[in-house]
Specification:
The structure is a single chain. By secondary structure, the protein is of the alpha+beta class. The chain folds into 3 domains: 96 residues, Multidrug efflux transporter AcrB pore domain like (Alpha-Beta Plaits); 86 residues, Multidrug efflux transporter AcrB TolC docking domain, DN and DC subdomains; 155 residues, Multidrug efflux transporter AcrB transmembrane domain (Multidrug efflux transporter AcrB transmembrane fold). The chain has 12 helices and 11 strands. Strands 1, 2, 9, 10 and 11 form a 5-stranded antiparallel β-sheet that branches. Strand 9 and strand 10 form a beta hairpin. Helix 9 packs antiparallel against helix 12. The chain is rod-shaped, with a radius of gyration of 38 Å. The N and C termini lie far apart (78 Å).
């Protein structure tokens, strides 16, 4: 899902001790990411350095009193130099370095021709005690919890693809197979992907609390445990309207869209609450159920529709604003505007129907209770008569 802030839209992190496996897993993920339409700038944090020479000591060298550290030290001293002394010249200090002449340091061939001195002072040809390998070094090594780490990141065109859906798809369909091929590699979400996931979890927890609070606030004045469910039945339809609004306008559902949907839940119940309260008052005045429901629809139709339309039209300037500053609030405005509009239509049809269904359901149980009471009384009378 999209959201505010800079940086990459999708970020994955691999870590492990085997750098070759890390590089291979990173390459496969980058290729898979690049296959999505709308994903661009796929990069990783692996920084290859300059070419380097790697030395490997031969087994027979150890019998001659040589170690890899001794070998590396002598090679370094011969080509880079060993500090012999320091000379003070005025305010400056001059290092005196001892190394091979320049003409003996100009090519790799001179390395193979050099002689290595063992602990007894004997000089041994380099080729007899060591092997040479040419490879690319590392510009930098990033570690996480003691393991080498490589981060893969990518940018997403939010008008064409939802970055959060891409991240979830890769986690579900691609990563498990990749981890089986590279068991030494660990995976986790990082960056914007991780932050958005945490934000969604936090918002869902807040959403659950908001629903409970709305239910409690309506159950107390209505003195009913069931009527708040009728009123809140329009909330899912407000969610549907918000999703439709994003599809119609071509906007991806973002974290800010979810914020708008949560705010929407407190708005769409207003019209339903007005209808249910009107029906309750009409029935308290002695009107029948059907008459009360019909009258509530007739008398509250105009204020409900006008209220929703004015709210919708008031949000339209924000929805169609093109400035950069407005881009953050547009997803919230879309959720509110289209959610209210869609929920209003559903409210006028669904809430009266559910109210009647609820009353029929309660009547069914009342009839059963009356029959049970009658049977109990008849049984009691028969027992008394027998006695």
């Amino acid at each position: 899902m999209g959201g505010p802030g800079g940086g990459a839209d999708i970020t994955f992190e691999f870590s492990g001790k085997n750098l070759d496996a890390l590089k291979a897993a990173t390459l496969e993920l980058k290729q898979h990411l690049a296959s999505f339409d709308g994903i661009a700038d796929v990069n990783d944090t692996f920084a290859g350095g300059s070419d380097e020479i790697r030395l490997f000591i031969k087994p027979q060298a150890e019998a001659l009193g040589l170690s890899l550290q001794t070998l590396a030290t002598q090679v370094r001293n011969g080509f880079y130099g060993a500090e012999a002394q320091r000379i003070q010249r005025g305010d400056e200090e001059v290092k005196v370095m001892i190394r091979y002449p320049k003409e003996q340091r100009s090519s790799i061939g001179h390395l193979e021709n050099m002689r290595i001195r063992n602990s007894q002072g004997d000089e041994i040809p380099f080729s007899e005690v060591a092997d040479v390998e040419f490879a690319q070094g590392y510009g930098s090594i990033i570690r996480v919890d003691g393991n080498r780490s490589i981060t893969v990141s990518a940018k997403a065109d939010k008008g064409r693809i939802n970055p959060q859906e891409v991240a979830m798809s890769i986690q579900k369909n691609f990563i498990p197979d990749l981890m089986q091929r590279y068991p030494s590699v660990d995976f986790r979400l990082e960056g914007a992907s991780k932050e958005q996931g945490e934000a969604i979890v936090s918002l869902m927890q807040g959403f659950a609390f908001a629903l409970f609070a709305i239910y409690a606030l309506m159950a107390v004045p209505l003195k009913s445990y069931s009527q708040p469910f009728i009123i809140m039945s329009v909330i899912p339809f407000g969610l549907v309207g918000a999703i439709i609004g994003h599809l119609v306008l071509g906007h991806a559902v973002s974290v800010l869209s979810i914020c708008g949907i949560i705010a929407l839940t407190g708005v769409v119940v207003n019209d339903s609450l007005i209808l249910v309260d009107f029906v309750n008052r009409a029935r308290a005045e002695g009107h029948s159920l059907i008459e009360s429901v019909v009258q509530s629809g007739k008398q509250r139709f105009r204020p409900i529709v006008l209220t929703s339309l004015t709210t919708f039209m008031g949000l339209m300037p924000i929805v169609f604003e093109k400035s950069l500053q407005a881009q953050l609030v547009i997803p919230m405005a879309i959720s509110l505007a289209f959610g209210i509009l869609f929920a209003t239509v559903i409210t006028l049809l669904l809430v009266p129907s559910l109210y009647i269904m609820l009353d029929d359901f309660k009547s069914l149980f009342r009839d059963k209770e009356v029959k049970n009471d009658s049977k109990h009384k008849l049984h009691h009378k028969s027992v008394v008569a027998d006695s």
